[in-house]
Write a structure and sequence with these properties.
Length: about 350
């Protein structure tokens, strides 16, 4: 009976976290109010100089403070929201929001309080992972926490020190990401060493090949001067994003091939061929997933460009072209990982049968 009903635990966790977040106002220092009544004016149409249309609605909101020394006080404020919801949102009875005091002693809206849905989804995901992964969840969670700590440390070093080369800092961070994840997820053994070395090697080879191609072509139609990379080192951010983005896919591929090849009772040549066959089957989906991730990252900016009168070709070149380039370089690493991992895993596997 327990085996059947346990799959309802994620739903229970979702409801528990969501309900708890509705009652956590006293944990915040900033005033939080809960909406008790709303009256709205008739929406007013607006059109900008590019023909984009929207509607603005003004709400008169009555609310009650949930925290601070004035807990329980009744207050009123206005909320102006648009139909598009780009920078605002509609308030309804029961909504919780952050407010601030004005010079005249009143209150004004700051932002919606959204921790409820965030914590609820987090609780749902964690509970589901525990049910699926069981004991492996602990090691995976420790790996994620360790990687977050490494990222925070690297950002702190990069922001606080002008003497550290950012390229070598983030390249070293990628190596540490791989080492930590490999040890926590795979273990401290021969397979972990093979997976870690091939992940770093394939990623470095893929990025190096991409850098060579972009340099020889003079970065033609690759506009790193776009808004997304307005910094002192746009190329650095571009390549760091490729390294971190493709590292997980390459690691997943390398661990799968290594584990499968190491379990085969065959000679080195047969193991290599088996690794190549496995790699051919999984590298296609991995490339497709990374392609969709990189393109999805540029999708909202692309829509903004198109809505503001830019041509499709111009939008693809200036915005989506960066996503295509990143997916291409990541694909280099995924493809190169197949022979590299197959060969090293076949060589390092225990020589049990006719190696």
């Amino acid at each position: 009976m327990w085996r059947k009903w346990r799959w309802l635990l994620p739903v229970v966790a979702f409801l528990a976290f969501f309900g708890g977040a509705r009652l956590d106002a006293r944990l915040y220092r900033q005033p939080i109010a809960q909406v008790t009544a709303v009256t709205a004016t008739k929406p007013k149409a607006q059109t900008d100089n590019l023909g984009n249309r929207d509607h603005l609605t003004t709400q008169r909101v009555a609310a009650r403070l949930l925290n601070t020394a004035h807990r329980g006080r009744r207050l009123t404020f206005t909320n102006v929201y648009s139909y598009s919801g780009a920078m605002d949102s509609r308030l309804v009875v029961g909504s919780q929001c952050f407010v601030s005091t004005t010079a005249g002693g009143g209150y004004q809206l700051q932002n919606r309080k959204r921790d409820g849905i965030v914590l609820a989804l987090l609780g749902f995901a964690l509970t589901l992972l525990v049910l699926v992964m069981r004991r492996r969840f602990v090691m995976s969670a420790l790996s994620i926490l360790a990687n977050i700590a490494l990222l925070a440390l690297a950002l702190h070093v990069e922001l606080s020190s002008r003497d550290v080369s950012a390229w070598w800092l983030f390249a070293g961070l990628a190596v540490l990401f791989t080492a930590v994840t490999t040890v926590f997820v795979v273990g401290f053994n021969r397979q972990a060493a093979v997976a870690g070395v091939t992940t770093i090697g394939a990623t470095a080879a893929g990025v190096g090949l991409g850098y060579l191609i972009f340099t020889l072509t003079g970065y033609r139609n690759l506009h790193l001067e776009s808004v997304k990379y307005v910094t002192q080192a746009p190329q650095l951010l571009f390549y760091v994003q490729i390294i971190i983005g493709s590292l997980g896919a390459v690691f997943d591929e390398c661990t799968d091939i290594t584990a499968a090849v190491s379990e085969l009772e065959a000679g080195g040549a047969a193991r290599f061929r088996a690794g190549m066959a496995i790699g051919r089957n999984i590298m296609g989906p991995l490339i497709a997933v990374l392609f969709m991730i990189f393109i999805a990252d540029t999708f909202t900016e692309s829509v903004l460009w198109l809505r503001n009168g830019n041509a499709i070709s111009q939008t693809v070149i200036w915005v989506m072209g960066l996503g295509f380039a990143q997916a291409l370089v990541s694909a280099f690493g995924i493809v190169l990982a197949v022979p590299l991992t197959s060969g090293l895993a076949a060589w390092a596997a225990p020589k049990e049968v006719g190696a």
